[in-house]
Amino acid sequence: MLKVLSATRHCGGPGSFSSRIPSNLRNGNDVRAATPLLRVLGALWGSNGGGSVFERRAFFCSDSGNGSDKDGVAAEAAAAENSSGSESSDGEVEGVESNSSSSAIVSTNPRPEDHRTVIALPLTHRPLFPGFYMPIHVKDRKLLVALEENFKRSVAYAGAFLVKEDPATDLSIAPGSETVKSVYDLKGEELYKRLHEVGTLAQISSIQGEHVVLIGHRRLRITEMVDEDPLTVKVDHLKDQPYDKDDDIIKATSFEVISTLRDVLKTSSLWRDHVQTYTKHIGDFNYPRLADFGAAISGANKSLCQQVLEELDVYKRLKLTLELVKKEMEISKIQESIAKAIEEKMSGEQRRYLLNEQLKAIKKELGIETDDKTALSAKFRERLETKRERCPPQILQVIEEELTKLQLLEASSSEFNVTRNYLDWLTALPWGNYSDENFDVNHAQRILDEDHYGLSDVKERILEFIAVGKLRGISQGKIICLSGPPGVGKTSIGRSIARALNRKFYRFSVGGLADVAEIKGHRRTYIGAMPGKMVQCLKNVGTANPLVLIDEIDKLGRGHAGDPASALLELLDPEQNANFLDHYLDVPIDLSKVLFVCTANVVEMIPNPLLDRMEIIALAGYITDEKMHIGRDYLEKTIREACGIKPEQVELTDAAILSLIENYCREAGVRNLQKHIEKIYRKIALKLVREGVSNEPSAEVTIQDDSSNEHEETSLEEKSETDDKEQADGKPGVKSLQEAVEVSNEAEVIKETNDASVTETNKAFEKVIIDVSNLSDFVGKPVFQADRIYDQPPVGVVMGLAWTAMGGSTLYVETTLIEQGEGKGALQPTGQLGDVMKESAEIAHTVSRAILLEKEPDNLFFAKSKLHLHVPAGATPKDGPSAGCTMITSMLSLAMKRPVKKDLAMTGEVTLTGRILPIGGF
Fold first, then answer.
1. Among positive and negative, which fits the CA dihedral 542, 544, 545, 551?
2. Which residues carry a binding-site annotation?
3. Alpha-carbon gap, residue 369 to 359, rounded angstroms
4. Which residues contribute to the annotated binding site for ATP?
5. Residues annotated as catalytic (active site), given as ranges
6. Spans of biased composition, class Low complexity (predicted)?
7. What confidence tens digit (pLDDT) does each residue in 443-460 have?
8. Cystine design at 439: which of 138, 151, 154, 470 (Cβ 3.0–4.6 Å)?
């Protein structure tokens, strides 16, 4: 059929086709020499041929009932043809008739039309058309036994009927799933109601286990049910309605069907196989068979195929078939276009791949593979692979998009470098990588005690924080702010907390920071753009839950580049930093697991919105006893080891440390004390080196000597090997070997001499003892003198307490009489006092007069006396309201001529009515 349909590829219609058929076939001289399909198609198109194909019908699986009222005649004609022994050129029909196992022409005894009662076989997928094979799977054991009995008794016929769709079944369920299973379970009356009335009389060709092969013969209509198990029904044999085979409309429709089939055959090899099988087993085409053939091999759904099967009007059946094959043609065109597009894409990608591989090989040979985009992408993907499971999906999506963009950019473009740097940061961050925290309170207590002396209240607050974290499972909450003077250990406490919690530690200072981009990052479009400090921190520490120490938060600047204090709000606030957005990365980062510790010298300098989010832990400073312990147990030991001095070479007495604290280092912290102890040990180190002492371990000297000797020995060995070769060649080499032995002996003598000189120098050196007597030789004259100027303060002199940047100090307030007389009552303050302190002096003068008037009404000292009030250390600016009670006591001491106790010091602000206010922050 393929040859025939291909031969009809023309634009001139049926006339052209007939002109292309060989003359002997057009004239009907040797029709049997052509294939059956060629004969039928030639007869359909040829108008002046010798004979119509419909007058010479071969049996098609016995008789399919085409409605021409010549069934018996056709059978006799077919039998006559077979018995006459007329030879056919292709031998298809005769070959089929002679094959008993697969022959489409079967014995007419009994004839198919004699079967009025048949077993009903349900078909689930498609109806069986006359002339077609169909294998089915029979699960019902009883039905299978009945079919096998019929097959053995040569009553090998059954009725094949399509099963109707169940209205309750979801049409979206794929065929062959639950719907098919339910059909196999149907029995008797229920199955009978689900069958279409029109089906096909099917000959049982073979039975292999549960698989039965059917061959369709003619159309049937169910009239009534005979038996339920297996389902047996009475049927009427249907014949096609009479039609005029010379009708132009029917001819035109059949020509269009054939033309469409021809076009489909060009694209589908499967259809070609159908045609070959059909023409081999059926023989000639006629209009009804052409309609059945087109519908049977089309990919239409079963309901449309059932309509074709039920249609007995040949013209209408041809029209239905034409619709189906036209639709099949459209599907074939779409399939061809899809296949072509995919093939073009695949070939293009394959070509690109081959070219890229060749390019890689060329670059590898030339050694210029460093800037390869593929290598970059592979590096980023490899770096991401370990974090892929923990990385948020939106981050993965951004990374994939950027990797795709990287492949499309040219390596020389500026955008390429921006994308590469961006991917470098994105893939380097520790997405979801958390370090295991240690909430052991005893462990934290031990670490805090190892690193810090005193500060019991601060340690207690930190342990409370860790205990809450243990109960909650996470150490989150308020931001800790350690406030206090410089040198009291705020930064080192933050480091100790990180060590106690087993967290990574990162510190950055925001003192003087005036650019918001340092915290929030730059935009990627800027030249030299960088992410903010927090992103840099996460990359450096490698975990997503470090302890971040933000130093000097009270010294934040504010410039033209924004307000960093406001930018810190999003960073520090636990309610916001779960989705912290850096301008450079532009993807949300979870900082809720990060523990922030801030440090500040003065809490009042921190902006209020920022201060509101913090929990203040104050470190007031150290008293003398605490400084003694810190200096002895922490500072002195650490500094001595750092300077390389052994304990038996130096002794720093407790009296010397105490003198350092009182006369040199009065600040609240211990940083200045550390500097003075370092100064002492540096001078001792210089003295030791000048006297020839060396504290280098002997092992190191030996290693250095050995290394030099090894170098010499190596060269000597090489030389000796050369000499050996020379000796083997008959040349002298003994002299070089003797020189090598002499050099080695000299090196050993030098080494022994050096060891002996070091030992003698260490033995001759005496231990250095630093005491109060020689302390000034190392650190100079005392900076501070004793605050106690008087053993017994005179009248009008009182010791006061003052707050300073170094923690605090004592100072004297002195009042003396200038002159007396009527109307001379006045006060003259001096000592570089601030405005507030001058007001305090005036208030003290007024309150003193009121107290004296109450206690001694006859004493008119203040009314007649001009007083001079002075606060010593005139070069030091002094201000504040808390000197009020000290000034009042000094004035009353002068007025009443009574000295104050020598061990008394005081401070406090006085109101005009004589009330003393509490001291702020005490």
1. positive
2. 484-491
3. 10
4. 484-491
5. 882
6. 77-88, 96-107
7. 999 998 888 888 888 888
8. 470
